[in-house]
Amino acid sequence: MQKSFHFSKKLKAKQVFTMDFIPKAIQEYAERHSSAEPEVLYDLNRQTHLKVLKPRMLSGHLQGRLLSLISHMIKPQLIVEIGTYTGYSALCLAEGLAENGRLITIDVNEELKGFAESFFQKADMQDRIQMLIGHAADIIPTLPGSIDLAFIDADKKNYRLYYDLLLPKMRPGGFLLADNVLWSGKVVDASQAKDPATRSIMEFNEYVSRDPRVEKVLLPIRDGIYLIRKK
User: Fold this and answer.
1) What is the domain partition of the chain in residue ranges?
2) pLDDT digits over 205-225, tens only?
3) Which residue ranges of the chain lie beneath pLDDT 70?
4) Four-residue CA torsion sign, 156, 130, 79, 161
5) What gap in Å lies between CA 74 and CA 161, rounded to an integer?
6) Looking at residue 15, what DSSP letter applies?
7) Residue 58 has what pLDDT?
8) Which of 73, 78, 135, 202 is buried most, with the most CB atoms less than 10 Å from its CB?
9) Separation CA 97–CA 139 (nearest Å)
10) What is the pLDDT of residue 87?
11) Taking the model in full, what pTM does it have?
12) Helix %, strand %, coil % for the chain, to 5?
């Protein structure tokens, strides 16, 4: 019998979302015409679906290849990720690290730390990825500056807080990515505006769109990715 991990209490902050507003056939077509998942990521994807609650929180094939490609283009020395989950996106981002580069990933759920780190080791990335457990709002101020690439994929109510804490630590020309910014299409549904998570994402999107410190484009990929460049 497969062992299952039940982390419902500590995952309540991460909302359940369906992401079904993009047709399945289009998603599958895009994946078939993109680079394949590396074997370790395929296994991580499979094991997450077998053993962990809410597996759709995992970045997945198409988004993962985008994260890897962006990282390869930037060749970052320092990546900071907010929201590790089972480590899929961290491994994708780490693929493009410069020589001697490192990735710091932060999550509040200590119960998934061993699971994620086992895959960091399988990918031979255990010396390049550091996983910190705690509240990102407390940890970000302690991080070094000159961040080249940041990825926000955590509790939606604090997206703006994480953004405002990260941006001053990023080098000019650095990139910040924010996930789930279309929130299953709810951001364009006025009837959803009273939902706290939806409202937080809508307010974050509006804030970024008006921020003169950055250049930005909102990409309708999977559940929406905000691609943001610090001027």
Assistant:
1) 24-230
2) 999 999 999 999 999 998 999
3) 1-21
4) positive
5) 25
6) P
7) 87
8) 78
9) 22
10) 97
11) 0.89
12) 45, 20, 35
